[in-house]
Amino acid sequence: MRDRLRTLMLIFLLLFAFVFAYSFETGPLNLNNSQKEATDKTAEINRSYYSILDFDDESEYEFATRGLIVAPEILELKDSSGKVVWSQAAYGFVDEFETIPDTANPSLWRDTVLNHCYGLFEVCEGIYQVRGYDLTNLTLIETECGGWIIFDPLMSLECSEAAMRLVEENLGKRPILAIVMSHPHVDHFGGIKGVIQEEQVADRALSIEDQISSGKIPIIVPEGFTEHAVSENLFAGTAMARRAAYQYGVLLEKSERDSLAMGIGLGQSTGTLTFILPTHEVRKTGEKIVIDGVEMIFQMTPGTEAPTEMNTYFPQLKALWLAENCTGTLHNLYTLRGAEVRDGNTWAKYILEAITLFGSETEVTFQSHNWPHWGNDVVIKYMEDTAAVYKFIHDQTLMYINLGYTSDEISNMIHLPEYFGKVWYTRQYYGTVAHNAKAVYQKYMGWYDANPVHLNPLDPSERARKFVEYLGDTERVLEMAYKDFLAGEYQWVAEITNILVYADPQNMAARYLCADALEQLGYQSESGTWRNAYLTAALELRIGNLKDESKLAKGSADILANLTVEMLLDYMGMLIDANEAEDIDITFNLVLTDSDERYFVHLFHGVLLYYKDQTRETSDATLTCPKIGLLTLISRNEAQQKQLIKVDGNEDILMKLTQAMVTMDRTFNIVEP
Predict the structure, then answer these.
(1) Are strands 373-374 and 621-625 parallel, antiparallel or unpaired?
(2) Is the CB of residue 144 less than 8 Å from the CB of residue 134?
(3) H helices then E strands: how many in the chain?
(4) What are phi and psi of 587, to 5 degrees?
(5) Do residues 190 and 222 make contact, with C-beta atoms less than 8 angstroms apart?
(6) Residue 622: CB partners within 8 Å, gap ≥ 6?
């Protein structure tokens, strides 16, 4: 009997060796470009959340569904070309599963279910929200004579138009008396022309009181709104748009193995972005504005979720609008699409200030994402817990910094206290403790960890090639990586195989194994943005970069039209490739006919400098045009340049100015060189 067992075991080992060897001739076992199911390790990790969190606690679900007036059975919005720009129908799969699949973190799945609750809701008497019609909520405040004050008119024109139709069909058509935009991120203003048109807007030269009494619509924003709204969409806008595709999962399908919610909503709409210049800036906490009987008291919160932001209190309604300072999830001190880091300490202080200013009377908090919270005890706890989490991340990171730990070390060491880890509205659906801790490190210490080895590291592709040279046998590395994959070491497998991809992007076995590892990390992620990033990278490793811009949000001509001349000149300087412009040395006067501005501009050795309120007789040429003429230089549209720009002097000046400009690429590679 023993001999027979030994023989059977030998046959099994030989068979396994043959299969393993054959699989590596064409790539390790099961390495192909298809999506996979969750591994046993991933399933085990996901199921562990049932012992961490109280899934019987339905309080957040009750808040997410409370006050529902109406919701269409199917919600799918399209632009004028027929392209789908927003769809709740795509998330209908969450209703089809009796148990949460192993390919989804149960906590994130639950958040997806809550964000799939959409329609027109009553927050309290006089306040309504359309939720789930875009990444943000459309909020409406009823005035004494039956008008609306609208807060944050969504991201896309098509979405805000549909939201207003839902309101008018169920609450009647009412005049819009004011627009309030809490901060300058595009998902809070991009849909404004689906609500009002430019000709309805009040005269910006008037005081806010005269704007209100003029019969036209004031647009009320925090100080510095316009500058930040246009600059964020310009200077690093191309890179942010590409990275946002990873963060928001716009290239992914919606399913139990693809994109789910991401904490502050289901995802980005991809419709038409619009912009109208504001008419009044709120400059200090405590400023009061009364519109048709509705009193609003503003609290400035700069440097929190946005460089400029404001909360609003409605004393008659005992209701506090928290903008994006509290959102029912851990937010970002650093957002994965790229942005200036945010100050967790300041963020916490402004929430505590709101409690001090308004907390004793507040009965409901509501905001631009997710759902309200009701009851004074509940809202105080909600705000205090949220403040405490940002303060914790800030303070603990600094403690570790001063103990000598680096950014990567701290991000692996810091964990929320057990109490905060169990609170549903501080869970890591959008931001994470790990990358927020890195944001604190970056704010105080920058990119350098003080190890001189990291002062000037090799280019990633060169480093990867040296790794491969030292490792020697790439197939042996893949064998070892595959064994680690089977052991559930997905982060390490992703790291080592991505080195192989950077050394040789055509190494399909490395691409597929890297994709498989990233996919499992995505399935495990409680953060929707991390899940989207992992799964988007896996998709592109398997099928390549499709260079498809059709799923990205459209650029906004309205934003471009409202750029200042100096912003446009700065942007032109960013477009110039210094290597191509090394030998170019030109000067010109720039005279703007519509803004009555003058500049002297000098391009030399790849650098564009300009002097405001100057012209010089010794310049090579004088360019006279309206501000829009500068856009034709950026787009390098020669026909439009001839129509809009008058050139006195060197006729070649436009060609010399634009010949070294690069074309920005919204589809550049991310997970491969």
Answers:
(1) unpaired
(2) no
(3) 24, 21
(4) -135, 145
(5) no
(6) 588, 589, 590, 591, 615, 647, 648, 649
Side-by-side strand order, sheet with 176-180: 68-70, 119-124, 127-131, 138-142, 148-151, 176-180, 219-222, 280-282
DSSP 645: -
Closest CA to 265 of 66, 104, 112, 121: 112
Residue 166: how many CB atoms within 10 A of its CB? 20
C-alpha distance from residue 544 to each of 344, 348, 364, 511, 536 (Å): 38, 42, 48, 10, 11
CA distance linking residue 353 with residue 282, whole number of Å: 18
* CA–CA gap between residue 490 and residue 492 (Å, rounded): 6
Collapsed DSSP state (helix, strand, coil) of residue 417: coil
pLDDT digits (tens, 9 = 90+) for 79-102: 999 999 999 999 999 999 999 999
DSSP annotation of 199 = G
Phi-psi region of 146 (alpha: psi -120 to 50; beta: other; left: phi over 0): left
CA angle 287, 289, 292 (to 5 degrees): 165
Determine the Cα–Cα distance for residues 223 and 280; give it in Å rounded to an integer.
Answer: 9
Domains and CATH numbers, the chain: 2-45+457-524 (1.25.40.880), 66-387 (3.60.15.30), 563-658 (3.30.1050.10)
Torsion of CA 111, 114, 118, 122, to 10 degrees: -130
The token pair at 371 is: 């759902």
DSSP codes joined into one string, 590-611: EEETTTTEEEEEEEETTEEEEE
Handedness of CA 232, 233, 235, 239 (dihedral sign): positive
How far apart CA 324 and CA 303 sit, in angstroms, is 12
Pick the closest to residue 494 from 466, 513, 473 (CA basis): 513
232, 337 Cβ separation under 8 angstroms: no
pLDDT number for residue 414: 96
Alpha carbon distance 373, 328 (integer Å)? 9
Q: What are the strands of the beta sheet with 288-291, ordered from one edge?
A: 288-291, 294-300, 310-314, 319-321, 364-366, 373-374
Burial class (CB in 10 A: 0-12, 13-18, 19+), 380: middle
pTM: 0.92
The per-residue DSSP string of 463-522 comes to HHHHHHHHH--HHHHHHHHHHHHHTT-HHHHHHHHHHHHHH-TT-HHHHHHHHHHHHHHH
10 Å Cβ neighbour count for 407?
Answer: 22
Q: Quick check: 598 and 615 in contact, CB under 8 A?
A: yes
* CA distances to 186, 431, 507 from 237, in Å: 11, 21, 32
Q: Which residue, chain included where needed, has tokens 């459309």?
A: 138
Are the CB atoms for 372 and 63 separated by under 8 Å? Answer: yes
> Which ranges of the chain have pLDDT less than 50?
1-2, 5, 7-26
Helix axes 508-524, 528-543, angle to 10 degrees: 160
| Backbone torsions φ then ψ of 85, nearest 5 degrees | -110, -15
Contact 534, 258 (CB under 8 A): no
Question: Which long-range contacts link 99-103 to residues 24+ away (Cβ below 8 Å)?
Answer: 100/46, 101/38, 101/256, 101/257, 102/37, 102/38, 102/42, 102/43, 102/46, 102/47, 102/523, 103/37, 103/38, 103/42, 103/256, 103/257, 103/523
Sign of the alpha-carbon torsion through 264, 269, 273, 274:
negative
Structural tokens at position 124: 């309290």
d(CA 156, CA 272): 5
For residue range 604-657, what is the model confidence (pLDDT) as tens digits?
A: 999 999 999 999 999 999 999 999 999 999 999 999 999 999 999 999 999 999
